[in-house]
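fold-stage: in
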Amino acid sequence: MGAMCGSAGHLFYHMIIVPYLRGYRIDPARWIDMPGAFGASGAVTTLVILHILMHPNNIVFLWFVPMPAAVAGCALVGMDLYRAYNTSSGTAVGAHLGGALQGLLVYLLLKKFS
């Protein structure tokens, strides 16, 4: 599910968000040239965010610096949001953010039914 939500986030980002940020008209004819993505980044981000939400006080290492998982999660999502705004980053930030959203949704479902 994380990989599929990552792919959906990637598609949404390139079909809707990038044209909006660059001031283009949203044009379905341009979607044929859109870069595709179906990979591990959305799935990995889902698992990372789910772990962070379930264990926010665990100490994790981000860039070799120990910090609480909640701080690392905010840094990771914040970096992806910054890169999403700067549309020329070359990173599949839509996939990362789609995976993060899936991790949040799974966490909320687990919390509701447990």
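fold-stage: in (second)
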Amino acid sequence: MDTQNLEKAAIKIQSWWRGNMVRRTLLHAALRAWVIQCWWRSMQAKMLEQRRRLALRLYTCQEWAVVKMQAQVRMWQARRRFLQARQAACIIQSHWRWHASQTRGLIRGRYEVRASRLELDIEILMT
């Protein structure tokens, strides 16, 4: 083997070695990029989940506030109806009491007819 053949063989070996090294470097770079991409996707998924939970918490809070407000309004309406009914009952009672006080003092009585005489029992109430 002469020098030229040795140089050609050495050049082939060196180019093969450099090709292997470049391919290995590219493979390592691709693997690192893949790891970074996986990490980034997981971070994006976590951030999306956090945003979703925050939106859900906000929605739940707003819904709860609406439910509380509706309950307060219903309670206010029920209390208003109760107070109106109580006021109406008080007016009816006061009128009834006035009427009862006006009719007191009338003569109340009962009578029976026995044989030939009339038995009369009269009661005058003034209260």
